[in-house]
Design goal:
By secondary structure, this protein is α+β, with helices and mostly antiparallel strands. The strands form five sheets. Strands 13, 14, 15, 16, 17, 18, 19 and 20 form an eight-stranded antiparallel β-sheet that branches. Strands 1-2-3-4-6-5 form a six-stranded antiparallel β-sheet, covered by helices on one side. The protein has a three-stranded antiparallel β-sheet with strand order 11-12-21. Helix 3 packs antiparallel against helix 6 and helix 8 runs antiparallel to helix 9.
């Protein structure tokens, strides 16, 4: 029998959870007439001194923190059969994992929960403790008079910050653990920040970020996960950018601390804007001065913006990573370049402009809703003709051009005039090495042209992108 009917003054009511090392029971403190949770070491580990030591260390870590957002330890002892146990705050509202199983959370609710868990982590860190196993199953809820409150639990992998400043043994839950923790590197608070970002991703989408099931697979992660819009179309772009920055494999590219992440998440939710300072100002390039007319695509790729308003998403829109201007995505070495896991095209919109693109074209810039650039590398759009992407821009002009502007090093064919619906068009085709670039101008109205430039090595896909470009 794994469990006697009582331990000391605590009568056991029913089992509420079990893990690899311990079982948790709902119990009643008969002296205080109160419900508590009793966590007791499993029988098969009772002789393992290392496991016993870790079990008791968890109790000591929890006792260090007096926080509404961390499960409290009220008593500790040893059962008649020699197994250590802890008496914990009873969380009567289940776990975040249970709620996520039912589907993605409402945005305001997810933000509230992530902020509460973040506060718990801040309190742990302030007491010199790193959690190292933040995941939905370790976020419990306790009913309060005003609703419920999220609390962090299970510090079985917890370590003091003094210990993790040295090389540590790998550990953690694959779907939520930071890569540096798996690699046994020296850890700091950013390991827990990564895990909190992974929990946020799961709360917003209903799925863990990368879907990895082994620690070895975590070591292969070299980019943030796919945009959350690939799993839930209406995820606001600002929230998507904030969460995925927390999931940078390189910890130096993450938010510098929990406050930065939590403040940015709240701001993204309440204002719909990507918070200023997402990329350090020192990393921002200076736009080149010019006295000659500037090609609109060049101007767009060189745009210097620190905060970009994200318009409310239309219900039919399946967005890609959009909230930042191209320079922001490229300048920080990885905020763009996020790859998408699905192969179907996604529709990208800005003002009157829209186009369906491959999901690998995961960087976007918008200039006053009159120009749109979607590419694999917006920073390389003007300097490398091999970069795939599409540019759409409104041009104030009454006539179609008679000559094109071939990219440097590319040859051009004769222009081809045509008609799309009631719009007159002229199309220029440039050959750039083994690739071709299509540059089309459409007469939208007597005073406006639409320019569409597509770079794609596959002729079929190139034509599909060109045909999908619209001005509405």
């Amino acid at each position: 029998m794994d469990q006697p009917p009582r331990i000391g003054r605590y009568s056991l009511v029913r089992r509420v959870g079990a893990g690899g090392f311990a079982t948790v029971w709902l119990a009643r403190d008969e002296q205080l007439d109160a419900e508590v949770a009793v966590k007791i070491l499993s029988e098969n580990w009772v002789e393992d001194e290392d496991v016993r030591r870790r079990f008791l260390a968890e109790g000591r870590f929890l006792r260090k923190v007096d926080s509404l957002y961390v499960v409290g330890v009220h008593d500790i002892g040893e059962a008649d059969d020699g197994r250590p146990f802890m008496v914990l705050t009873y969380a009567d509202g289940g776990t975040l994992a249970d709620r996520i199983k039912a589907g993605p959370l409402e945005y305001g609710e997810a933000v509230r929960i992530i902020n509460q868990v973040g506060r718990g982590l801040k309190h742990l860190h302030a007491r010199g403790v790193l959690h190292r196993d933040v995941k939905p199953a370790n976020v419990l809820f306790r009913t309060d008079p005003n609703g419920d409150r999220a609390m962090l639990s299970d510090l079985g992998l917890g370590k003091s910050l003094a210990e993790v400043s040295r090389i540590t043994m790998p550990g953690g839950t694959p779907a939520y653990v930071a890569p540096e923790q798996v690699m046994g590197e020296r850890l700091d608070h950013r390991a827990d920040l990564y895990s909190l970002g992974a929990v946020a991703y799961a709360a917003f989408t209903g799925q863990a970020p990368h879907g990895v099931v082994s620690l070895g697979a975590v070591m292969q992660i070299d980019a943030p996960p796919p945009s959350m819009t690939t799993l839930r179309e209406d995820v606001p772009d600002a929230i998507d950018v904030v969460v995925r920055r927390a999931l940078e494999p390189d910890r130096d590219k993450r938010w510098p601390d929990l406050d930065s992440f939590l403040n940015a998440l709240r701001e993204a939710h309440t204002t719909g804007k990507v918070p200023a300072g997402l990329v350090p100002a020192a990393a921002m390039p200076t736009p080149a001065a010019t006295t000659a007319p500037v090609d609109q695509a060049t101007a767009l790729a060189n745009a210097n913006q620190s905060t970009v308003a994200v318009k409310p998403r239309r219900s039919r829109r399946a967005g890609v990573l959009t909230a930042l201007a191209a320079v922001l995505l490229a300048a920080a070495g990885g905020y763009g370049g996020y790859q998408y896991v699905l192969t179907r095209p996604v529709k990208v919109e800005a003002g009157h402009l829209s186009v369906a693109v491959p999901r690998s074209w995961s960087q976007k810039a918008v200039d006053n809703d009159k120009a749109l650039l979607v590419s694999t590398s917006t920073s390389g759009w003007q300097t490398n003709s091999d970069v795939e992407g599409v540019y759409l821009g409104e041009i104030a002009a009454q006539e179609l051009p008679t000559a094109g502007a071939a990219p440097a090093g590319c040859s051009s064919s004769a222009p081809k005039n045509g008609v799309i619906g009631d719009q007159n068009t002229v199309t220029f085709v440039y050959t750039c090495g083994s690739a071709q670039v299509v540059d089309q101008y459409r007469q939208i109205n007597p005073s406006t042209l639409l320019r569409v430039q597509v770079r794609e090595s596959d002729p079929k896909q190139r034509q599909e992108v060109l045909d999908s470009a619209k001005y509405s």
